[in-house]
Design goal:
It is built from 3 helices and 7 strands, in the order E-E-E-E-H-E-E-E-H-H. By secondary structure, it is of the alpha+beta class.
């Protein structure tokens, strides 16, 4: 039976005039994604998402709602691992990025269309589309916070 790991992260955005900017991180292979990390013992995924965003990028955020989750299986040290990642929509309360270079290769703000082009993983791209749609249509007003 595969080991189970739970992680959490955020699709973080900020408004600049009429534009929505999305925070993305690059891994060591240069693949662009979203800040995320392990849920620690005694921690809920929402708290972990905010913590991981701040640890990896220096960005303080306000959690707005759960966007969705991704699941995948990979092999680590010869053992199968099932990983579930909960992604939240998070409004940035700061904008200066301080990448945690021991964990990530880079972090930047991208306009929505550019973020979609750079997104390296299909499941994340789907979540990003959902976030952009919610922000563009005012759908956040119709959704519960978590």
């Amino acid at each position: 039976m595969p080991a189970a790991i739970t992680s959490a992260g955020g699709v973080v955005y900020r408004q600049e005039g009429d534009s929505i900017l999305i925070l993305m991180i690059a891994d060591s292979q240069g693949r662009w994604s979203f800040p995320k990390g392990m849920v620690q013992r005694g921690e809920d995924p929402a708290t972990a998402a905010l913590r991981e965003v701040q640890e990896e990028t220096g960005i303080v955020g306000q959690l707005l709602r759960l966007l969705g989750e991704t699941r995948y299986i990979y092999r680590q040290s010869g053992q199968l691992v099932t990983k579930t990642v909960y992604f939240y929509l998070i409004r940035a309360q700061s904008q200066a990025i301080t990448p945690q270079l021991s964990e990530i290769a880079d972090a930047r703000w991208f306009a929505g269309a550019e973020a979609l082009r750079r997104s390296a993983f299909a499941a994340n791209t789907d979540l990003l589309r959902k976030a952009i749609d919610l922000l563009a249509t005012g759908g956040l007003d119709k959704q519960p916070p978590t």
